[in-house]
């Protein structure tokens, strides 16, 4: 299988590594990026090669690992190079799926979102099989062979979820960090210590990746509104919010929100040069 990965950052390298390691003989993989040094480093890391963004070559599958804000343009620019299929690992789904439908109506189309930074792989990978076929199934088999858990979703469900688990979560963590400035470490409680570790995780990433997430998904306002509800509540109203929050948490884990038991169920360069960030951050 011949693969072109557009975007030579962390997620592009993850995609290349995942596809190469799952095949014997290895996949013929090429990287394209405006930053030729990044493309060369990615190719060296996975045993691939470098091609120009304007290459005339065709590939069985084109994998887009570009920033969320430029994915529509990337689909349009590289659709003709995908002879059989296109996939993306950008971290947003409605935009790439819609663009791929427009520009690749007769080819296989799948959108993926690895819900982790590449250095934390393997993990959960959200999947939209918009127009599946043998090539995209081979890609998904390679993702699963890398130890990842894939699960089906829709573009709408995915992007709505990201408003909470990415934009909302990051807002809450950064707001706590800003409000905790100047508090000595000796005053830490078990809860605040855990929050401080989350702050280090978020602020240890790439600012432009988090900026793009906040710009792509709503969710910050919902956290701000919830914080105001807590701040304004007293007495019984606070206890009701406390119980409401606990019920939401148990329900999200698959547990019973009434009895409190657990259930048994279960990014890139801003200038568009390549995916150097952590879409699953």
Automatic annotation (TrEMBL):
SUPFAM superfamilies: 6-phosphogluconate dehydrogenase C-terminal domain-like (SSF48179), NAD(P)-binding Rossmann-fold domains (SSF51735). Residues 1-272 form the Prephenate/arogenate dehydrogenase domain. Keywords: Oxidoreductase. It comes from the Archaea. GO terms for biological process: tyrosine biosynthetic process. Residues 262-281 have a biased composition (Gly residues). One of its GO terms (molecular function) is NAD+ binding. The keyword Cell membrane does not apply. Residues 246-281 are annotated as: Disordered. InterPro entries: 6-PGluconate_DH-like_C_sf, NAD(P)-bd_dom_sf, PDH_N, Preph/Arog_dehydrog, Prephen_DH. This is Prephenate dehydrogenase. The lineage of its organism: Archaea, Methanobacteriati, Methanobacteriota, Stenosarchaea group, Halobacteria.
